[in-house]
UniProtKB/TrEMBL annotation:
It comes from the Bacteria. This is Uncharacterized protein DUF3822. CDD domains: ASKHA_ATPase_BT3980-like. It holds the Pfam family DUF3822.
C-alpha cells in the first residue's frame, strides 16, 4: 500500500518499522498534520538482517520522497529478542544478563533498553547493521523495540476493568500479545505461527497460564488481520468478546479506509507527533 503526497512541505517526521519478514515507512507532514506517505513491504518468509538491509537500500534508491530532510526519524525493531524487567531491578551495565534466559546473544550484538511507564524496562537487541545505515543517513535518531510502543499505549488507557484486556497486534507470521488487568501488565510476548491453529493455540495457552477465562476477557485486534480472515474466524470460535481496536490519532489521513490503516500502522503512527 503506497500513498504519495507530491506537495513540498517544510517539516517532515518519519517512523520506520523493521521486521525480519518486511518493513514499513510512514511520513508525517507536520505542516498540515497529515500522513504524507506510507509504504509497507512484505517479504513473506523471514530474512536475515543483512538481507533486510539490502531491501531497504533498494527502496531508498527507488523512492525520491525518502531523500527529503526529516526533522525526526524513529526506527522500531519488531522481533522477539526482548525481555521486560522491573525498573527497580534493572542495572544498565548488566543489561545482557536479563536476555540470556530467553535469547541467544552473539558477541557482536548490542543490547539496548526502553524505559517504559509503570516502572518497567524493556531490554532488547536491535539490528546493528540497520542502525548503522540510518545513522550514516541521518546522524542521531531514536530507536525502540516495537512492542514497547504497544505496551505503553495499552497502559496509557488506564483501564480499570476487572476483566482482562488482551491486545493482539498481528504481523502475518507472528504477533505481539499484551495482556493487562486492573491496569497492570500481566504479559507481553511475541509468538510466531504458521497456521490458524498455531495462531489460536498461543493465545489460548497464554490465557490458561494467566488463569483468565476466554469467555470473559476482551480481545482487541490490531495489525494484519481482517474480519474475513481464517485467524479471525478461529479466534471468534473460542473467544466470546472479540473486536477490532479503533485507534485515535490527532492527525488526518488521505487513506480512504483510515481505520484499517490506523490498525495496520498502529506502532508507526503512535510514535509520530507534531510539536
Amino acid at each position: 500500500m503506497t500513498i504519495i503526497k507530491n506537495e513540498k512541505q517544510d517539516i517532515f517526521k518519519m517512523s520506520i518499522q523493521v521486521r525480519l519478514n518486511g518493513f514499513s515507512f510512514c511520513i508525517l507532514n507536520c505542516s498540515h498534520n497529515e500522513i504524507a506517505w506510507y509504504k509497507k513491504i512484505d517479504l513473506g518468509k523471514e530474512h536475515s538482517p543483512v538481507e533486510i538491509l539490502k531491501e531497504i537500500e533498494k527502496l531508498y534508491a527507488e523512492e525520491t520522497i525518502l531523500q527529503n530532510e526529516f526533522q525526526e526519524v524513529i526506527v522500531l525493531f519488531s522481533n522477539n529478542l526482548y525481555t521486560l524487567v522491573p525498573e527497580s531491578f534493572f542495572i544498565e551495565e548488566e543489561a545482557s544478563t536479563y536476555l540470556k534466559f530467553n535469547t541467544k546473544i552473539l558477541k557482536t550484538d548490542v543490547v539496548a533498553h526502553d524505559v517504559l511507564s509503570h516502572e518497567l524496562v524493556n531490554v532488547y537487541i536491535p539490528y546493528t547493521n540497520i542502525n548503522n545505515y540510518f545513522f550514516d543517513k541521518y546522524g542521531e535518531f531514536e530507536f525502540r523495540n516495537n512492542i514497547s510502543v504497544l505496551i505503553e499505549a495499552v497502559l496509557a488507557k488506564h483501564n480499570e476493568s476487572k476483566n482482562a484486556q488482551v491486545y493482539l497486534n498481528d504481523y502475518s507470521s507472528y504477533y505481539d500479545l499484551v495482556v493487562v488487568k486492573n491496569n497492570k501488565l500481566l504479559l507481553a510476548n511475541t509468538f510466531q505461527y504458521e497456521t490458524k491453529e498455531d495462531f489460536i493455540y498461543y493465545l489460548l495457552f497464554s490465557a490458561e497460564q494467566l488463569e483468565i477465562d476466554p469467555a470473559e476477557f476482551n480481545l482487541w485486534l490490531l495489525g494484519d488481520i481482517s474480519r474475513d480472515s481464517d485467524n479471525f474466524s478461529i479466534a471468534y470460535t473460542y473467544i466470546q468478546n472479540i473486536d477490532f481496536l479503533i485507534p485515535s490519532f490527532n492527525f488526518t489521513s488521505i487513506l480512504e479506509q483510515s481505520e484499517t490503516f490506523h490498525r495496520e500502522a498502529f506502532s508507526l503512527l503512535k510514535t509520530l507527533k507534531c510539536e
